[in-house]
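Pilot study result, target chain (346 residues):
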Amino acid sequence: MRLTQEQCQTFRAPKVIALTNQNGMKVILSSLGASWVSCILPLATGKRDVVLGSPNMAKQMEQGVYLGSIVRRVANRINNSRFTLNEQYYQLANNQGVHCLNGGKHSFSHRIWGIFQPTPQKAVFSLTSPVGDQGFPGQLDVEVSYELTEDNQVVIHHTYQSTEACPVNLANHIYFNLAGEDSVRTALEHDLYIDADQYLPTYMDGIPTGEWYNVADTNFDFRQSKRIGRDFLQDDDQRRVGGYDHTFILNNTLTDGLQTVATLGAPSGDVRLNIATTQPALHVYSGNNLLATSGKTRTYVPYSGVVIATQFPADAINHPEWGEQYSSIAFPQQMYQNQTRYQFVF
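Predicted structure:
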């Protein structure tokens, strides 16, 4: 799993590389957080960057909204920053009140990853998280690859292995605005489809209650494409967290990494993003807390972009009753892999 020493180096300063295809599409990545910092589409109307990002690496280090980065070891929230596994109690670093958000105070998103570019269209990042990192057990070795295909797909592949049983829920925290990173059009003006019959309601701090609700007759029903803003803040579930910040349980007949489980459409309809994954859930975050965040061409404000992150359900480590399929536990000396495809249509 690990890259050879010749292939993979850790740089003191972040390295930025670009992937390109024959259509003129370009994906820009950074070794700081293994981040996806730009996605430039060659539209008939001109080039358009559809991913939010920081103006430079110094600002990327300062920002706390995980722009484009890998979040670690466990994406999303862990209730009260603690869990019990194999009769052992673990207390984690808290960074959202008493809770652990996206892996704790010192996230993978602010670390320099090793980087290797085997081809002009592929990059591989690697990182080792030591025993006890942010309170988690075991050493975790991670590789993340990005590949840009000739048919305008960005394929993200996660591979990881732990020396001890440990929850692992890697996710890419990419904010999309298909109208353009520099556009005043918001996430709320995008159309969204999700093939999910259930979602996880939350408490005020975004922690799942443990229940799964059917989306039927709720504002969380995206089984027919609709504007994100159509039913926005129209229920207590959304008002508790300032918008959409919820996990959807994907219909498992579709999670083969090839079939579309979600689609995001640009406000003007000229760009579509189809998402396929092997993960059992996805989390939709409408950018509720993008408060005066420095961006590439402007200052981002709430709803400047939307995150559609494929992952295990939030706080799964504290809900074994959800079943093995939704468990984020990685057992020692076993190799784990998952994949998500972002297909751009324009």
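One observation from the pilot: Residues 127 and 307 are 23 Å apart (CA to CA). A full batch analysis is planned for the follow-on phase.
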